[in-house]
Design brief:
alpha/beta, Aspartate Aminotransferase, domain 1, 2 domains, 4-stranded mixed beta sheet, 15 helices, 17 strands, globular, pyridoxal phosphate binding, aminotransferase, Diaminobutyrate--2-oxoglutarate transaminase, diaminobutyrate-2-oxoglutarate transaminase activity, Dat
Length: 425
């Protein structure tokens, strides 16, 4: 009997919109989750290499953060606060400044734009246009920045863009790193357009970039490419926005994914794992001189979720007072890279390509059907992971940074077996 036949899913089928997606790949009803394991209602455990699409860098129901949350709620502390001053907001801001920004010599004002990553992106785009007085934004091929109209306008995926229902304007896509397989020098096209008065490209307000494109297929930009992009923006007076919604909070090693390149963006978008506990929270970090908002000019009802501030502060205190987690993430990422490279070699006729940085990793197949079949075979063996890329051709893993070596190896063994079965079929 199939897993979908066992699960009671009638209410979802009859009541919920067809727009749902993950439940189509994992047709069971989940009930509990601890660390890197998710349990369905029958009690079967699934090893989680998905981590809430990167929202659970410290695992499900992390006991340290769970304790903070339970105590906060039990004491009747304030939960909803808009942008009012609260002790929870103060504790987060002070901790974030002391443990994250100051040690990295970063000077940013913190905007709380709303509960999700798209809110952080919308705030950055809006402020960049306000500061510069320009409309155009440069984005990149295969980028993903969110599902609201502004964020969609700088997103590359045609399926997601088609859902907008209106023209998506004031954004110009440019080739991401290695889009042309290094046949051309970095930024030759963008530099020429910016320098040529006859190109028809208006001087942009900003460039928005992911250092590793998660939804776009685990495309990792080289540090030199990111430094070149930062230099180009500086020379032309263009603001640089780094979307660190999925790759921030330690996913690639350092707290910010741009640290390896040694660049300092004008704005940074954070969400997903910033709360540490899976609670909704987002930040847009802006250089102080760019903070020209009028009071109330950008706001949102859920920009002050105090329990998220508390778990975010404690996640930082727990995991970012030293470099232990960063070193562990880099080491585990290298472990995955080695296993993926071995898979590429052992299936040399299958056209596999290993991709990624840190614990954002992927294996690219020749087509989306094969990648999906591998993920489906892994699910049957008790492993959760998803596909990404323009045609879903990349098998993507985002395990919790706190995953144990045993869990990591067990999941990689499942991937090995799943690929072998699918390619042998």
């Amino acid at each position: 009997m199939s897993l979908s036949a066992i699960a009671d899913t009638e209410i979802f089928e009859s009541s919920e919109s067809r727009v749902r997606s993950y439940s189509r790949s994992w047709p069971v009803v989940f009930d509990r989750a601890v660390g890197s394991t998710v349990f369905d209602e029958s009690g079967r455990g699934y090893l989680d290499f998905f981590a809430g699409a990167g929202a659970l860098n410290y695992g499900h129901n992390n006991p340290i953060l769970k304790d903070v949350l339970i105590r906060y709620l039990a004491e009747d502390r304030i939960v909803h606060s808009l942008d009012m001053f609260t002790t929870a907001r103060r504790e987060f801001l002070q901790t974030f400044s002391d443990a994250i920004l100051t040690p990295r010599d970063l000077d940013y004002r913190v905007v709380f734009p709303g509960p999700g990553g798209a809110n952080a992106v919308e705030a950055a785009l809006k402020l960049a246009r306000k500061v510069t007085g320009r409309e155009s934004v440069i984005n990149f091929t295969n980028a993903f920045h969110g599902m609201t109209l502004g964020a969609l306008s700088v997103t590359g995926n045609s399926l997601k863009r088609s859902g907008a229902g209106v023209p998506l304007v004031h954004a110009t896509p440019m080739p991401y790193d290695d889009y042309f397989n290094q046949d051309y020098s970095d930024f030759f096209y963008l530099e020429r357009l910016l320098s040529d008065s006859g190109s028809g490209l208006n001087l942009p307000a900003a460039v928005i970039v992911e250092t590793v494109q998660g939804e776009g297929g685990i495309n990792a930009a080289r540090a030199d490419w990111l430094r070149g992009l930062a230099d180009l923006c500086r020379r032309h007076g263009i603001l640089l926005i780094v979307d660190d919604v999925q790759m921030g909070c330690g996913r690639t090693g350092g707290f910010f994914s741009f640290e390896e390149a040694g660049i300092v963006p004008d704005m940074v978008c954070l969400s997903k794992s910033i709360s540490g506990s899976g609670l909704p929270m987002a930040l847009t970090l802006v250089r102080p001189e760019l903070d020209i908002w009028e009071p109330g000019e950008h706001n949102g009802t859920f920009r002050g979720i105090a329990p998220a501030f508390m778990t975010a502060a404690d996640a930082i205190r727990t995991y970012w007072q030293d470099d232990a987690l960063e070193a562990s993430t880099i080491a585990k990422g290298a472990r995955v890279e080695g296993r993926f490279n071995a898979l590429v070699s052992s299936h040399d006729d299958a056209g596999l390509v290993a991709k990624g940085r840190g614990l954002a990793r992927g294996l690219q197949f020749r087509d989306g059907e094969t990648a999906e079949a591998v993920c489906r075979a892994a699910f049957e063996r008790g492993l959760l992971m998803e596909t990404s890329g323009p045609s879903g051709e990349v098998m993507k893993i985002l395990p919790a940074l706190t995953i144990t070596d045993e869990e990591l190896d067990r999941g990689l063994d499942i991937i090995d077996a799943s690929i072998a079965d699918v390619l042998a079929a």
